[in-house]
Batch of 4 targets.
Target 1
Amino acid sequence: MNYKTQMQAAKSGNVTKEMLLVAKKEHIPVEQLRQLVSAGQVAIPANINHTSLSAEGIGNGLRTKINVNLGISGDCKDYSAEMEKVDLAIKFGCESIMDLSNYGKTNVFRKELIAMSPAIIGTVPMYDAIGYLDKDLTDITAQDFLKVVESHAREGVDFMTIHAGINRRAIELFMREERITNIVSRGGSLLFAWMEMTGNENPFFEYYDDLLEILREYDVTISLGDALRPGSIADASDAAQLGELIELGNLTKRAWDRDVQVIVEGPGHMAIDEIAANMTMQKRLCHGAPFYVLGPIVTDIAPGYDHITSAIGGAIAATHGADFLCYVTPAEHLRLPDLDDVREGIIASKIAAHSADIAKGIPNARDIDNKMSAARQRLDWEEMFELALDSEKARRYYESSSLGDNNRCSMCGKMCAMHTTNQILEGKKVELLPEQEDCGKRD
């Protein structure tokens, strides 16, 4: 039998080559993985037309994955600059790249990206609709929106953020809430505007079954977007956010019934003490589907440092059930990120993800930390640089104030605790004072 989707194969008791690869990467039995895919608790986004893909699993019991956002916009039309960011994401082992291009004929960049990237590729078709269709927002029809989705699917996109949960009921809740920051999702705000200006229901909700048929044809995973995610800690966990989440739970089951894999998106901005409960609630309301979070950003007052506020929230979220972290750069809320911003955002997110994997007891997660500790004990700097998340920065910092002594850095110098203890355990004498100095005599 020719299986159209990973979920269909898993439900039928069959193992795909993508499942074999993911099981090997995750150090888990392939049959265990197949059952998780069958139940919807793990998604393997793998469009049949993305031939350069190195498949990854997202979900329960697997390593926390990282997504990097980039793309062409009216304010940044430099394809080569965006491709540098792609190269950086791949270099650092990010499992997913979202092309959020919204300017010009975006398929030129997207096709090149899909052709060369081993990482999962995601898009938000709503961003591309106006440029692709060359129409004003009010002139776009429901079928037009589906046409853009089909175009992205045919090109090889592995997962798509679709804001299907912001229907009329969800908007009623939003209007009653009187939020500080209203709607901060770009795709969600465009759909809200389209619905209000045309008087129509959300086309992705109204024609959800048609949407699923397109996604199933190419095995595209649907990432159910949280159009009403909180954009400030004051708006977190309100009725609008939770009402949409309930809709997303219903949409999750409908997608699974069509053998379409699902990821559910979550907050947003949120105080630390609300994160764990929100993760539990999402998993319950959305039937254990993989959870994809932006942050959460845990305070609103740190522009320029939101890679840190996001990493704090992301580590807590992933420890309590989130499976997929969208990176946030220092430029969030301020401007488009440059290459250095992207690097900082990636590293911060990877720290959050790895820290959570250790806390969750993910198989082999601690191994690299143990290797780093052993290298530190031996003062083996080359191995430390090799194991570091950002080896270039680690080496640059170390070499920037070299003591001319390969065994010690300038933090402790001759008082290096590792060196001192190693000397004693080896039966050697610890010498701290310079040889020419006589500490027994004073003028």
Target 2
Amino acid sequence: MTVHTGTTVKALKRNADSVTATLEGGGKTWEVTAERVILAVGIVGNVEDLGLENTKVKVDRTHILIDEWCRTDEPGVYAIGDVCGAPWLAHKASHEGVICVEKIAGLPHVHPLDTSRIPGCTYSRPQVASVGMTEKAAKAAGYDIRVGRFPFIGNGKAIALGEPEGMVKTIFDKKSGELLGAHMIGAEVTELIQGYGVAKTLETTEEDLVHTVFPHPTLSEMMHESVLSSLGRAIHI
């Protein structure tokens, strides 16, 4: 995999069995030929032909504006999912649907959605997963942070699976011990990230995670080791 940052696709040329892309960046122009080209430059809401023009429903840059209960400004009209904006994830839309219906039904103890606790997963090889803040975002928000890292090569299960490449990274507020964010790359991290998702929802601290027992041999042990690493206490590196 080759990643080109600060690069613009200037043109695409369809060949008999391939596509040639003209790229521009860093003061130079070059061509790359591939079998297929996938273009992903953002998501817009499908709000056309819904009859919203004569309602109080507000649309901002193709996305419907809602409150914490998924209500629009038009009484009785709700919206969920991609049409309401980021993050554009199926599990976010599903959770919004539950919140919306429970609120309509008048159920007690309904909680609004906190998007900072929604895990993001990329089903590539290797897989990528994250929840919460990045290290850069945490610093920009004014947090004094502590960061832990642990590599897949230090985990027996990862080695046994033949997947020794990857890492787990955790970010904590040094003052309170709050888990601010977690980031992973490697085998099955889209499954592992939910552990940190639960931790954020429960407002788990660094100390809580240190005292949690993780089963052996599992990939999840790396999650523990990353927390220990933030305190300079990692065991297997």
Target 3
Amino acid sequence: MRRPIFRGTQASALALLHRAEVLHLATTTPGGAPVLRALDGAVLPDGVYFHGARTGEKALCMGRAAVVSAVELVAHLPSWMSHPTRACPASTLYRSVQVHGTLREVEAPAEKARALEALMQRWQPEGRYDPVDPADPQYQGELSGTLVFAVPFESVDCKEKLLQNKEPEQILAILAGLWRRGQPGDVEAIEAVRAANPSVPAPPFLAADGVRLHAALPEEEIPAVEALLRDEYWWGPETAPLIAGAHRAATAWVGAREPGGALVASARAMSDGKTAWIYDVVVASSHRGRGLGKRLMTLLLDHPAVRHAPAVMLATRDAQGLYARFGFADKAQEPKRWPTMTDMVLRRGRG
């Protein structure tokens, strides 16, 4: 039984099952021998579906109690984030889910097709195949010969271990430690901990008046950032469809939301460690003139993906005064580091 403080919602559990790279299925044979397998599965509204060979060990386990589990590492926390010398505070932040049910074989062709189609959509979201249809002659043999089985959602148990048992000052110390360490995934861990502990105030590096700053924005914010950038001069009708991909590929993407949740500012960067490029610094018109652009740039320049780059670049035709406050200068006024080199660009039309 989960400690109530760590218990996640049904929606969180289903979301974790959907995004898990691998699911683990545990059951027993009729003789009581344990069976544990790592499998790819399809999560449908009524349960988790798998497929396999009819001659495999799993085929012997139909009708027996089963558990499907998935786990997602959020961050390993070293002891020094909580205590300068003691080893005991070292810990791990993670999300996990368990589905308990009775393993059953799926026999109806339509239900088997539904499960296999869901697996194909998971493996091959780009399509380029004929949908799995039980009436399609090309699939009737496969549907008959393939074992499809499911674990129904008889019980779903979700755990999110994200510092909910810690005092606010302890949480703030760990958030600061994650920010300074800056390993891959640490900024996302910061956002996960803050979401799980909404009553804890913002750490100093994310403090802002009237908005909630974020060290990382999720893919779900892409429609909102597209709306913010749609009318900006550097994104025209030809290139606006690239906004989503550009933000998915960013090595740093920070932003600000209103207390009610609407995205009102965003900025991203790309960095290879030697040079970082700043892109798409934008503040909603309703929030300009309040210093939010400066606060956003401060956060982005201190982001772990940007802070160690010896050179940080950007291109703009306005707001030069804002960027000058951070030390940016007109590159054209500087001597060329390599006088014999020519700056070149390849521009390709979209087709």
Target 4
Amino acid sequence: MSRSTPLRGVHESLGATLTDFAGWQMPLRYGSESAEHNAVRTAAGLFDLSHMGEIFVVGAQAGEALDRALVGHLSVLAPGRARYTMIVNETGGILDDLIVYRLDEDQYMVVANASNYALVARELADRVRGYDARVTDRSDEYALVAVQGPRSAEILAALTDADLDDLKYYAIVPGVVAGTPALIARTGYTGEDGFELFVLNEHAVPLWNALAEAGRDAGLVPAGLSARDTLRLEAGMPLYGNELSAAITPFDAGLGRVVRFDKPGDFVGKAALERAAENGTRRRLVGLVARGRRVPRHGYSVTREGAVVGEVTSGAPSQSLGRPIAMAYVDEGALEKGGLAVDIRGSQEPVDVVDLPFYRRSK
């Protein structure tokens, strides 16, 4: 049975199309997904992300424990800052990609994907044994509301005394938003400036309504999973279950930079990742832009001269480029030779390989 976020009633009142996502009933769209996408690129969008997991790691050795548990170097993270990282298994396969926020000297918040946070909480609890650190999964207590887009700071500033001008990208600060205690993070999954607001469940509806009202004249609209997916795809951001899985290492995904071999001590998966770094990868994650109008979709084969040389992981029409785009894992040898296509229902549709991301916002 699917779970509902504290905002389900709001979504239904707005006429949202709901869908099951990772065991949650989530808004797919409220009307036109292209309009929602474009609103985030030009003004602002309001997202319910309450299906995500919030796991707290607390104690005098919380940082050192996370250094062992994850691939990143979290003990050197300054209080009030955040870092993108991953948890891997002993063979280097990605169990989830995460954002870790250091809330103070001995308290971290690990934000995990909806499909994986129970696994992440269990793994963290096991991996911190022997350290002065304890793991508490507080996912059921928290809602997460995001406002994303070039006018997001303007909208949020009308509701909070927090100094947003001094809040850097990948930073977090406690504050009050529309009378609601919140953790205010300058993070997001859209390629735009924006904020993610962590609040207790009972504050989710009043916070959402206050943001919607404050953003009404600024062009803010509610945005669903469809727009979130096309926005993150244009921004070249991976999705667990598509670009990332337990069969893929960070190096396969072109994200080897998040693995910190230079931190002191051992960490889970280190030996396997050292081999992956040394041996290189057979396939590489790349961006594809279709020359025609047909859309490469997840699971479609990438071909060269009729032979399968890769697989599409995510694909959609791009509102920003005006052409279909995709991410795909492709054999290195085929990338060197060029002449790639995607098999779309038996038709070999030519594509161009491009660097990721497809879209970068203007600063």
